[in-house]
Write a structure and sequence with these properties.
The structure is a single chain. By secondary structure, this protein is an alpha/beta fold. It has three domains: 81 residues, Udp-n-acetylmuramoylalanyl-d-glutamate--2,6- Diaminopimelate Ligase, Chain: A, domain 1, CATH 3.40.1390; 210 residues, UDP-N-acetylmuramoyl-L-alanine:D-glutamate ligase; 153 residues, Mur ligase, C-terminal domain (Protein-Tyrosine Phosphatase, Chain A). The protein has 15 helices and 23 strands. Helix 2 links the parallel strand 5 and strand 6. Helix 4 crosses helix 10 and helix 7 runs parallel beside helix 8. It starts with a strand and ends in a 9-residue tail after the last strand. Its EC number is 6.3.2.10.
């Protein structure tokens, strides 16, 4: 199905099409480009114009450019605009204007990607749903997500992030959501903000994009909840609160089971029971907020709660998998919790509480006692208080149940020094150095968490753990 025709794209961007063409998708990367995509020649580490010829060879329908690239024929299928990023933004705005979809935008210091995926899952069961890919939530990710949205979309889920002040409001105004959700406000990106209150003000600016009659879904449990509520009042939008102190969606109890979180809540004072295919109190909060947002969009709450029970996190975001360590002895396994994509003090505390609650298995490995083990990398962008924030992790209540912590990076050296000697594992400068040590540090029966900021490349540690054996398929019983 055609997503953009040459005349439509030219009208949206004010550009000029060299020939007639039609595109079925939009791409910014030749490595993932599909035949029929409109290739957008953005300038990042390298100028996208360098890859236009390659994109056309791979079957791109056309390329969005600001000039005819070297080595590309004058009559090649191009859409020439003054500025490529501006052209992408214009496409995104036009896609949003032509659809009748109900749109939800999500931001927050922690949990926005997981919550976005929860909403994708529950809304997909109730209508044609379009959502951000991965964490495409920045100045090019939001317009790209919008530009990819089919006209007949019924629900759209747009993730909006930030690193510096003033980034969220323009993206929210582009997305024009009917519902805007703030998962929580926590100490993240403190290098760019003077305080957590400053972060709250920036997060709250997502409400500037709300459509007339729109709804704000706000975390009532975070310390800056009053700032979020005041913003909703200022922009004259209805707000729905969720959490233990939620006004409308109230969290009553959370039961953490082996691989499931069971949540008892109230929605407008009526009982609401749901489960999530992942373990963690933070998943309960995100799920409750997702259900509040789904209802605010007009979705059926009971059906949404059922759908949520089939959701589970994906790789790098808290996904759990069993690794078989022996090809013959089926019970020789360990459990991996892969949360290696990102980290800040709040999400780190949540992940460590999940590890602390995990069930280990005794008497199946070289070490008779199953252990809870963490590989933790630096949490970046915390400013001058970063070293102290790392050291303070040692005082978390969950640390009591964790047997050994291996630390990676100069900031995590502060946690390593603050740990009791019996809990101190290795400290290395890089994930590559730690990955080489992994096989000697783990055994059957262990549960192991890997978490840190993306730039720390803890995926290398995750890969090293997987290479100790092979992942057990979800349908496979390691005991049979």
């Amino acid at each position: 199905m055609t997503l953009w025709s040459a005349p439509e794209a030219a009208a949206a961007t004010g550009g000029a099409a060299t020939v007639d063409w039609s595109a079925t998708g939009v791409s910014i990367d030749t490595r993932t480009l599909r035949p029929g995509d409109l290739f957008v020649a953005l300038k990042a580490a390298r100028d996208g114009h360098e890859f236009v010829a390659q994109a056309l060879e791979k079957g791109a329908a056309a390329a969005l450019v600001s000039r005819v690239p070297e080595g590309v024929a004058e009559d090649a299928p191009l859409l020439i605009v003054d500025d490529v990023l501006g052209g992408l933004e214009a496409l995104g705005s036009a896609a949003r204007a032509r659809t009748r979809a109900r749109v939800v935008a999500i931001t927050g210091s922690v949990g926005k990607t997981s919550t976005k995926e929860m909403l994708r899952a529950v809304l997909s069961d109730q209508g044609r749903t379009h959502a951000s890919v991965a964490s495409y939530n920045n100045h090019w990710g939001v317009p790209l997500t919008l530009a990819r949205m089919p006209e007949d979309t019924e629900y759209a889920v747009i993730e909006i992030g930030m690193s510096n002040p003033g980034e969220i409001a323009p993206l929210a105004k582009m997305a024009r959501p009917h519902v805007a959700m703030i998962t929580t406000v926590a100490a993240a990106h403190l290098e760019a903000f003077e305080s957590i209150e400053g972060i709250a003000v920036e997060k709250a600016s997502i409400l500037d994009g709300l459509e007339h009659g729109g709804t704000a879904v706000l975390n009532n449990d975070c310390s800056t909840a009053a700032i979020l509520q005041a913003k909703a009042h200022d922009v004259k939008r209805r707000d729905i609160g969720f959490g233990e102190h939620g006004f409308d969606f109230k969290l009553k109890s959370v039961d953490l089971q082996r691989d499931t979180t069971v949540v008892l809540a109230e929605a407008h004072e009526a009982p609401l029971l749901f489960k999530i295919g992942a373990v963690g109190r933070h998943y309960a909060m995100n799920g409750l907020g997702a259900l509040a947002a789904a209802e605010a969009l007009g979705a059926d709450l009971a059906l949404a709660a059922q759908s949520l029970g089939r959701w589970s996190p994906y790789e790098g975001r808290g996904a759990r998998e069993v690794i078989a360590l022996d090809a013959v002895e089926a019970d020789m396994t360990l459990e991996l919790i892969d949360d290696s994509y990102n980290a800040n003090p709040t999400s780190m505390a949540a992940a460590l509480s999940v590890l602390a609650a995990a069930e280990v298995t005794h008497d199946i490995g070289r070490v008779s006692k199953g252990r809870r083990i963490a590989f933790l990398g630096d949490m970046k962008e915390l400013g001058p208080d970063g070293p102290a924030m790392h050291a303070e992790l040692a005082r978390l209540e969950s640390m009591e149940a964790i047997d050994k912590l291996h630390c990676i990076g100069p900031l995590m050296k502060h946690l390593h020094a603050a740990l009791p000697v019996e809990k101190q594992g290795l400290w290395t400068e890089t994930s590559e150095d730690m990955a080489a040590q992994v096989p000697r540090r783990l055994d059957s029966g262990d549960v192991v968490l890997v978490k840190g900021s993306l730039s720390m490349k803890l995926a290398r540690v995750v890969d090293a753990i997987r290479k100790m054996g092979h992942p057990v398929d979800k349908g496979e019983d390691p005991q049979k």
